[in-house]
């Protein structure tokens, strides 16, 4: 054990960090499609929507694979498939080829998520899970801070660099997990059930709907925020990348100082407060006209991210039976995949109406998610205590 957490967890954490250091493609996809491939805003929104459609299937498929063939095999296989899809997208030049590559990428890029979430739940004692999920979140953003800064500069030299670096980081993650993380899948029970059992869990379904609101906010950072800042506000990719790096830097510096305190707070109230602050930050984006203004709005919604941090993963781990952790995590991840579909499909038309239409709507989504989580609070507390 290292710091109260098992060594395989730290191997998973290290692989996640390496992968996020190389995560440069998705945050700049909108810029890549409009500037490098010359697509219109509507076409770029369609392509990113196709990516989200593939991701919808990805989460559910990965949930089944995680419970059936194992956490380690699902995670490593998904990372290798992601590397191949990244390079295919980087060398696609026609709209049909780009659509096909983006669908394939969406289908495999999130396969690791249910497996990773289940691994943490399997490896870590319940009392330590909020800290463990928070550490993964911290590692993701430590890598993200570096990756976004480097990605913005490399995008100005040539987008192909982003695809190769991202692909290599996926291969490293796959190899590290395969070598250093043991398989933790429990023996399936005869009455194990499937997604039907998850969908009959009303607390989990309600929580998934709340997570959808949270995910819709965060999805803007990968979909419409880059487009809005470069196409409407007219920031360069380098300026946008520099401002976005503040998100990772703040999390890296601040989260370790507050994570222990936040971990002792009530999960439902903490989640509600965090998502409300995120909504406020995105609403402020309506008034951004410069890199400095963007940095201010990022600082606000990043505060919300820090507050939420490890709460969702710990809640899902508490709600899920051991033998169905993959499927529960898959349904949880489905909300994020659905957000990846809805964010550009809703955000594109809203952005064409004007920045205020988009960002005020996002503020409303944050407020609705916060209220929903407060309503779920008593049920979540009861399940966690049980």
TrEMBL record:
A single GO molecular function term of this UniProt record: transmembrane transporter activity
Coiled-coil ranges from the UniProt annotation: none
Keyword Transmembrane: yes
Transmembrane segments: 12-33, 39-61, 97-115, 135-155, 161-181, 202-220, 240-263, 270-288, 294-319, 331-351, 357-380
Localization: Cell membrane
InterPro entries membership: MFS (IPR011701), MFS_dom (IPR020846), MFS_trans_sf (IPR036259), MFS_Transporters (IPR050171)
Major facilitator superfamily (MFS) profile domain: residues covered: 8-381
Entry's Gene Ontology cellular component terms: plasma membrane
PROSITE patterns: MFS
Pfam families in the cross-refs: MFS_1
Keyword list, A-Z: Cell membrane, Membrane, Transmembrane, Transmembrane helix, Transport
Membrane topology term: Multi-pass membrane protein
Stored PANTHER family: MULTIDRUG RESISTANCE PROTEIN MDTH (PTHR23517:SF2), RESISTANCE PROTEIN MDTM, PUTATIVE-RELATED-RELATED (PTHR23517)
Protein's name in the database: MFS transporter
Organism: Nonomuraea longispora
């Amino acid at each position: 054990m290292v710091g109260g957490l098992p060594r395989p967890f730290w191997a998973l954490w290290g692989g996640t960090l390496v992968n996020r250091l190389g995560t440069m493609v998705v945050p700049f996809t909108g810029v890549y499609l409009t500037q490098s491939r010359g697509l219109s805003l509507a076409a770029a929104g369609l392509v990113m929507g196709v990516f989200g459609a593939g991701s919808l299937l990805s989460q559910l498929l990965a949930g089944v694979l995680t419970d059936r063939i194992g956490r380690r095999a699902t995670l490593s296989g998904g990372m290798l498939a992601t590397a191949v899809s990244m390079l295919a997208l980087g060398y696609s030049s026609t709209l049909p080829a780009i659509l096909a590559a983006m669908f394939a990428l969406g289908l495999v890029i999130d396969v690791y998520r249910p497996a990773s979430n289940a691994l943490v739940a399997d490896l870590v004692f319940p009392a330590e899970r909020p800290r463990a999920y928070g550490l993964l979140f911290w590692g993701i953003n430590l890598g993200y801070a570096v990756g976004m800064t480097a990605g913005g500069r490399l995008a100005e030299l040539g987008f192909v660099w982003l695809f190769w670096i991202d692909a290599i980081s996926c291969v490293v993650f796959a190899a590290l997990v395969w070598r250093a993380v043991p398989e933790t899948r429990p023996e399936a029970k005869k009455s194990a059930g499937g997604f039907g059992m998850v969908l009959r869990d009303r607390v989990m379904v309600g929580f998934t709907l709340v997570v959808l609101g949270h995910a819709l906010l965060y999805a803007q950072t990968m979909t419409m925020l880059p487009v809005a800042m470069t196409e409407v506000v007219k920031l360069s990719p380098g300026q946008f990348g520099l401002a976005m790096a503040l998100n990772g830097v703040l999390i890296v510096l601040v989260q370790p100082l507050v994570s222990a305190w936040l971990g002792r707070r009530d999960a439902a109230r903490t989640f509600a407060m965090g998502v409300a602050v995120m909504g406020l930050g995105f609403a402020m984006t309506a008034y951004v006209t410069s890199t400095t203004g963007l940095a201010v709005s990022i600082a606000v919604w990043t505060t919300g991210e820090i507050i939420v941090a490890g709460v969702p993963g710990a809640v899902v781990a508490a709600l899920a039976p051991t033998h169905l952790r993959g499927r529960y995590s898959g349904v949880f991840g489905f909300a994020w995949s659905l957000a990846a579909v809805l964010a550009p499909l809703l955000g594109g038309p809203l952005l064409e109406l004007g920045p205020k239409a988009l960002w005020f709507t996002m503020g409303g989504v944050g407020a609705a998610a916060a209220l929903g989580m407060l309503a779920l609070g008593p049920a979540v507390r009861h399940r966690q205590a049980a």
